[in-house]
Design brief:
This protein is an alpha+beta fold and about 160 residues long. The chain is built from eight helices and four strands. It binds ribavirin triphosphate and magnesium ion. Keywords: ATP-binding, Kinase, Nucleotide-binding, Signal, Transferase.
């Protein structure tokens, strides 16, 4: 085993607008649950343009970038934090190749999608990006909510 595969990690998984609209959220959650990963947080929200641009900033010079931003902001997304041993790389395997026609059967994209520009789900490509993506979405406002709750209890 590779050493990094033995570490408990967190990754960010996001069901993209097409996946939410097509009613695939349950299937996608179920695959991660059945694999044995732990759901640590979940939020449904409409991704603001600024956050989409931050999320895909490495791709901003690509020809498809404007379409990508339009797609990802076109409807609600379901963003999740998943925990487990080697979950960052494993989630990418469960999700499958970027182009769904090249994704293996048994993967989410291989089973559920056809087009690269409608590929249903995102998974972080590194633990650092996972932490950053989770902080900006699933856990955004988490500390403030905790403080507000403490204030309420004290009153
Ligand atoms: P993601 O970040 O969404 O999990 O996808 P990925 O790692 O498999 O692929 P990435 O290279 O990060 O690309 C991000 C998303 O951009 C769209 N894309 N379109 N040639 C194209 O038209 C093209 N290439 C990439 C896809 O929606 C891809 O998931
Ligand atoms: Mg990517």
């Amino acid at each position: 085993l590779v050493a990094s595969m033995e570490e408990v990690e967190e990754t960010y998984v996001m069901v993209k607008p097409d996946g939410v609209q097509r009613g695939l959220v349950g299937d996608i959650i179920s695959r991660f649950e059945k694999k044995g990963f732990l759901l640590k947080g979940l939020k449904l929200f409409q991704c603001p343009k600024e956050l989409a641009e931050e999320h895909y900033k490495e791709l901003k010079d690509k020809s498809f970038y404007p379409k990508l931003i339009k797609y990802i902001t076109s409807g609600p997304v379901v963003c999740m934090a998943w925990e487990g041993i080697g979950v960052v790389a494993s989630a990418r395997k469960l999700i499958g190749a970027t182009n769904p026609l090249q994704a293996d059967p048994g993967t989410i994209r291989g089973d559920l999608a056809v087009q690269t520009g409608r590929n249903v789900v995102h998974g972080s490509d590194s633990p650092d990006n996972g932490h950053r993506e989770i902080a900006g979405t699933v856990r955004d406002g988490f500390d403030a909510a905790t403080e507000a709750s403490d204030g309420f209890d004290a009153a």
